[in-house]
Design brief:
Elements lengths: L13 E3 L2 E3 L5 E5 L6 H14 L3 E3 L16 H15 L2 E5 L3 H7 L5 E4 L7 H9 L4 E4 L6 H13 L5 E5 L15 H10 L4 E3 L1 H5 L2 H14 L3 E5 L17 H17 L13
Parallel strand pairs: 3-4, 3-10, 4-5, 5-6, 6-7, 7-8, 8-9
Antiparallel strand pairs: 1-2
Helix pairs in contact: 1-2, 4-5, 8-9
This protein binds phosphoenolpyruvate (PEP) and manganese (II) ion.
């Protein structure tokens, strides 16, 4: 099993657009659930720049429960994301749901996100195994750890060693939070695999007031970083509005998780390193 850790010192670092994931400093990936407009993406990019965050998340191909909901800007969104990425010098992390999208998005995305709903889309995983770019693999809605690692194995077996795992909460009986953030799984994955493990506190909780405490807990339990949804006008987000942080909230999250990172011997390298 290529995903398994062979010894306690076996760690893999995956670089997204030159930003290392899996090293001592934690990584923060932030941005809206979906790319909506140039103004929206530029406002987010300005905030990321002021915090020194270099990786932007923004979906252009959105997996929605209803076929009548906004499906993302699709191929038109690629152009928009490409121009914002170039203007601000950001790396882009964004979801692909099919092999065809992978091919269209190749030039614009620096890291292909596999969403929860596609964690076991084996043809997609095989195609990503052939890709020479990082993959952010999100845990399926009700996937066991074995299934999660099996999905990672498909990508690794194809010859792509650049896999990052993401715990984003699992389904439970209780709708009080959108999902249940499986912090034990994060600690376990860090034991079982050499791959970087990050946490998505936004989809895990589904509520903006819970994103910060969940992020603090994720850092405390040993995650290698966070992927967080934010929006210049959170209530107006076309998707996942309830969990979107404002840009001020994002700055607060950076400040508060930095203290937790320090307590567990890690460093959140924002915003301090911007000046360096
Ligand atoms: C997302 O990141 O916007 C998303 C759809 O996430 P997940 O696949 O974890 O639901
Ligand atoms: Mn979302």
């Amino acid at each position: 099993m290529l995903a398994r850790r062979s010894s306690p010192s076996h760690h893999t670092t995956v670089a997204i657009a030159g930003v290392p994931v899996g090293e001592q400093p934690l990584v923060l990936i932030a941005g809206p659930c979906a790319a909506e407009s140039e103004a929206q993406l530029c406002a987010v990019a300005e905030s990321l720049a002021s915090l020194g965050v270099r990786l932007l998340r923004a979906g252009v191909y959105k997996p929605r429960t209803s076929p009548y909901s906004f499906q993302g800007l699709q191929d038109e969104g690629l152009e928009l994301l490409g121009s914002v990425k170039r203007a601000y010098g950001l790396g882009v992390v964004s979801e692909v749901m099919s092999v065809a999208q992978l091919e269209s998005a190749y030039e614009v995305f620096d890291c292909f996100q596999v969403g929860s709903r596609n964690m076991q889309n084996f043809e997609l995983l095989k195609a990503l195994g052939q890709a020479r770019k990082p993959v952010l693999l999100k845990r399926g809605l009700a996937a066991t750890i074995e299934e999660f690692l099996g999905a990672a194995e498909y990508i690794l077996a194809g010859g792509n060693a650049q896999v990052i795992l993401c715990e984003r909460g699992i389904r439970s009986f209780d709708p009080a939070t959108r999902n249940v953030l499986d912090l034990g799984a994060v600690a376990l994955l860090k034991r079982l695999t050499h791959l970087p493990v990050i946490v998505d506190p936004s989809h895990a909780t589904g509520r903006r007031d819970l994103v910060l405490p969940a992020a603090r807990a994720a850092v405390a339990v040993g995650a290698d970083g966070l992927i967080v949804e934010c929006h210049p006008a959170p209530e107006q987000s076309v998707s996942d509005a309830a969990q979107a942080l404002s840009l001020d909230d994002l700055a607060q999250l950076v400040a508060e998780t930095a203290a937790v990172a320090q307590a567990v011997g890690r460093r959140l390298p924002y915003p301090m390193e911007r000046a360096a």
